[in-house]
Amino acid sequence: MTVTEFVDNLSAICLPNVFNPYRDSCPTYDHQESTAIRRQNLTLFLDAMVNIGVPTLWLGRDLGYRGGRRTGIALTDEHHLQLLSETFGIVGLTKATVDTDFIKERTATEVWKALSRINQPVMLWNVFPFHPYESPDPFTNRRHTKYEFDFCSEILVQLISWLQPTEVVALGADAETAVGRLGLRCTKVRHPSYGGQTQFAAEIHQIYRIGQHVYA
């Protein structure tokens, strides 16, 4: 499978009460080219991951409305696009929305705080690769349903088979459960949101043997 084929497959999926950033356009914050920009962002990111050869895959649960819904890249909000670009040497990542007063995503902030200390490439993804929301408010986050996971589970299987990471790190129990459903193994860490920042940092420290003082 090529990167283009993978992104095209993602872009074709449509589910109710789910925002697909590679297909859908947000009437509040997007402009005419936003959807194409997110597809391009993901394409550039995946190209870099394929070329580098990533040893580790970090898996969140779903895209958040302040993060991947806007950027097209898991566990990454618009505040951290430049850091992603610098970390992986990716040229051409672009902000896709017209919003100039957005709030940082908590998960993305903690993830990138940890990534800045690891000094090795990590593939970022979610077990459900889109943004599920509570209707009628598109700017809410909810857990994906079993039906939604099953509908899209082959995407995760393809990604892991394609990139062949040596380790999968599940951010939170939901991600761990989803990986287990597919018969795959992973290392679970505490999800960094809702008061889990300290434990998440400590567990990442244990996995990568980073000096604990960097999380102070």
Beta strands, count: 6
What is the gyration radius calculated from CA atoms?
16 Å
Structural class: alpha/beta
CATH topology category name = Uracil-DNA Glycosylase, subunit E
What is the CATH class name? Alpha Beta
Count of folded domains: 1
Secondary structure tally, helices? 8
Distance between the termini: 42 Å
Global outline: globular
CATH architecture: 3-Layer(aba) Sandwich
Largest sheet: 4 strands, parallel
> Which ranges are low-confidence, i.e. pLDDT below 50, for 5 or more consecutive residues?
none
The proportion of strand residues reads 5-15%
Summed up:
It is built from eight helices and six strands; from the N terminus they run H-E-H-E-H-H-H-E-E-H-E-H-E-H. The chain has helices spanning 3-11, 34-52, 68-71, 81-88, 106-118, 146-163, 173-181, 197-208, and strands at 18-19, 56-60, 122-126, 131-132, 167-171, 187-189.
